[in-house]
Amino acid sequence: MARLVESGGLVWVADDQDRIVQYMGGDTQRVNALAVGAKGDGVTDDTNALQRALSAMPSGGVLWLPPGVYKTPGLTVPNSGITIAGAGINATRLLRSGNNVMLDASGSATGFGTHQHGFQLRDLTIDGGGAGNTAPAVRMYYADTARIENVIIKNCGGSGLEGVEVWDSRFTNLWFDNCGLALGANTEAFRLVCTKEGVGSGFGLSTDNINNIWATDLLFTSNRQGDVLLSKNGGSAAAHRCYYDRFKFENQNVRNGQYAIKMDTVLYSSFRDFNLHPVSFDAGQSTKIDNIDINAISFNVFDGILLDDQGSAFTRTMFKVRGTCNANSFSRIMQQVPTPSVAGFEWIGANNSNSFGPLFYANHNGAPTKQQYYHGPIEVKAGTPADVDFDYVPLDGAMVGDSSGSKIWVRLGGTWKSVAVA
User: Fold this and answer.
1) pLDDT tens figures, 335-380
2) SS3 for 53?
3) Could you give the CA distance from residue 156 to residue 179 in angstroms, rounded to a whole number?
4) Cα-Cα-Cα-Cα dihedral of 192, 196, 200, 201, to 10°?
5) Fewest C-beta atoms under 10 Å: which of 199, 217, 255, 277?
6) 263 and 239 Cβ atoms separated by less than 8 Å
7) What is the DSSP letter of 114?
8) How many CB atoms lie within 10 A of CB 3?
9) In whole angstroms, what is the distance from residue 173 CA to residue 217 CA?
């Protein structure tokens, strides 16, 4: 059987007679999984072959998975700078066969010196093996400069991808499908937090933050317990400088308490071009959801958030806002429905110095029929305004010009107060 041979700090692939059958040279060798004993037939347990290859690789190594189905209860990436690459999302599949973390690319503890650096995963599908396997499919604790691209993560009892204290990493063109099947807590499909819930795994608690995360072109379908979490999660540091762009949330299994994205203590980040598209309730469920649940966030940008016409039937609010939220910007918040049928914002906490651009309501063909500003151009109405005059409950600072008299009305402390104008 082919095996790995280490020599001079390099990795060689040799057959049973120690004849070299593959070598890519330098510190960028590319090892073919089939050449080191993996079968990729979906039946054979390929753990030993794949783990031997990963364990022998120095930084810069690439484990190449040709088309096939590679069955394993779990793999660990022990060194920084390792790449696992498939032949495409429809060609290469890792199939989990037990309740373990399927792919663990983690450092050993909080802090830069003990991080896992530069892990890359691309061009394959990860199948979590069903509801009975509740560990995260991909685990990245204490990791930085990672690149995850062109990957499907599906059929998971727990989270699809869970990261703790992740820095300077990119997640591009990912599809999370049917995650959180076990209906347990902390099983969002794409989960980045600043601390762990406990220390039983041996990693300990994070004392640092999440920062500089670029997540682009992500699709979420049929996840049971929430799609995205970005949170300090009880830790001592916030998540900041995270850039989430072009997400589609298409959920065919809406459940009570579910959300598209939930964030807690997030700073200096942006969330752009989201399509909120819940499709149907899960069996036995009928409670409408709060799509974007935010708590104690400041200095963030939300731009281009669309709730489409079908999604409004399963939505209570577009934004549920809790805690003290300061200096955030909301613009191009859109509902594609003939008549607004859900609340745009529900403010439970303090609203301090947040700014609001246009909110659009559109008909089924997408043409705007009404535009509402909370702050900006003054609304014109006859007589004393009331909150019920608005399609959304207006915020303090909203202004109305009284067309029947020389007055300007301003909403302060939840009540409308006027001042005479000449």
Assistant:
1) 776 555 677 778 887 777 788 777 665 433 333 333 333 444 466 7
2) helix
3) 5
4) 30
5) 199
6) yes
7) G
8) 17
9) 5
Which has the closest alpha carbon to 368: 393, 395, 407, 332? Answer: 332
Give the Cα separation of 54 and 52 in Å (integer). Answer: 6
- What's the pLDDT score for residue 168? 96
The structure tokens listed for 14 are: 């040799």
Both structure tokens of 235: 């830790």
In the block, which residue shows the tokens 């535009």? 371
Which residue spans within 270-323 are E strands per DSSP?
270-276, 289-295, 301-307, 315-322
The single-letter code of the amino acid at 237 is: A
Residue type for 319, please? F
Q: What would the CATH number be for the domain defined by 60-380?
A: 2.160.20
In sequence order, what are the residues at sequence separation of 6 or more whose Cβ sits closer than 8 angstroms to the Cβ of residue 412? Answer: 396, 397
Per DSSP (E only), the strands in 30-119 are 30-32, 41-45, 62-65, 68-72, 75-76, 83-86, 92-96, 103-104, 116-117
Kindly report, as residue ranges, where domains of CATH 2.160.20 are found in the chain.
60-380
CB of 346 within 8 A of CB of 397?
Answer: no
Q: For position 196, what pLDDT does the model report?
A: 63
Q: What is the DSSP letter of 400?
A: E
For the chain, the distance separating the N- and C-terminal CA atoms, rounded to the nearest angstrom, is 93
Where b means 16+ CB within 10 Å and e means fewer, 269-305 reads bebbbbbbbbbebbeebeebbbbbbbbbbbebebbeb
Residue 37, amino acid: G
Q: Looking at per-residue confidence, does 341 or 279 come out higher?
A: 279
Cβ-contact 194, 209 below 8 angstroms: yes
Residues 351, 322 contacting (CB under 8 angstroms)? no
Query: For the CA atoms of 329, 333, 209, 76, what is the dihedral angle to 10 degrees?
Result: -160
User: Closest Cα to residue 358, out of 376, 344, 338, 340?
Assistant: 376
Contact between 67 and 54 under an 8 Å Cβ cutoff? The reply is: no
CA distance 91 to 172: 19
pLDDT at 104 over 80: yes
- pLDDT over threshold 80, residue 195: no
The CA-based angle 148-118-231, given to 5 degrees, is 60
The pLDDT > 70 percentage for the chain reads 83
Taking residues 249-255, report their average pLDDT.
89
Q: Which candidate, 282, 238, 245, places its Cα nearest to that of 261?
A: 245
